[in-house]
Amino acid sequence: MTHSCFDVQIANDIAHIILNRPDKRNSMVPAFWTELPAIIRDIDDNAKARVIVISSTGPHFTSGLDVSSFQQAEITDPSEKRAARIRSGADFYGTVKNMQQSFTALEDCRVPVLVAIQGGCIGGGVDLITACDMRYATEDAFITIFETNIGMTADVGTFPRISKLIADGVARELAYTGRRMTAGEAKEVGLVNRVFKDHTAMMKGVMEIAAEIASKAPLAIMGCKRLMNYSRDHTVQDGLDYIAIWNASMLQREEIFEAMKANAEKRPGKFVDLPPVKKHIG
Question: Which CATH architecture has domain 218-264?
Answer without folding.
Answer: Orthogonal Bundle (1.10)
